[in-house]
Amino acid sequence: MGRKIPVDKLTQEVDKILSEYGGDVQGNLNTIVGQMSKKGAQTLRQQSKNTFGGTGKYAKGWTSTVETGRVSAQGTIYNKTPGLPHLLENGHALRGGGRTPGRPHIKPVEEALVREFESKVKSKL
Q1: Comparing 43 with 14, which gets the higher pLDDT?
Q2: Terminus-to-terminus CA distance in the chain, angstroms?
Q3: What is the rounded CA–CA span in Å between residue 20 and residue 85?
Q4: What is the DSSP letter of 98?
């Protein structure tokens, strides 16, 4: 079995165990968020190159950052060309009238990353 803990020290021991577990969970989340952010940027680079071709400047612009706090981790995937991903994903008005259709290339990657993130977090907990 385990060690015996006096009743007056029980609260302290439970707090200690929970803080250790919280630290482990936060470390795992930081790692997973970092991995998923890098994977998302890499996938978007490949998808953009396949979808749009051209010189590859748009595709090369995908990058990611991870911000970690004491109890949070946030990954951001973005393109260095502001505004262009939105126009390509959703379509835009043409100068002479009319509208160009959007080419969804971000949404499928996002949905796949969310599913994979959830499964990784569940497996680590």
Answers
A1: 43
A2: 24
A3: 41
A4: S
Task: Answer yes or no: is pLDDT of 93 > 60.
Answer: yes
At residue 29, what are phi and psi to the nearest 5 degrees? -65, -45
Indicate the angle between helix axes 107-124 and 10-52, nearest 10 degrees.
150
Element (H, E) at 99: strand 99-100
* Side-chain half-sphere CA neighbours of 60 within 13 A: 4
Confidence of residue 1 (pLDDT cuts 50, 70, 90): low
Stated pTM of the model: 0.79
Block residue for tokens 């009238």: 97
Please name the amino acid found at residue 100: T
Token readout for 91 is 């379509």
**Rounded Cα distance, 10 and 49, in Å:** 59
- Written as six digits, the tokens of 46 are 């490949």
Residue 35 CA to residue 119 CA, distance in Å, equals: 13
- Long-range contacts of the stretch 99-106 (C-beta < 8 A, 24+): 103/51, 103/52, 105/44, 105/47, 105/48, 105/51, 105/52, 106/44
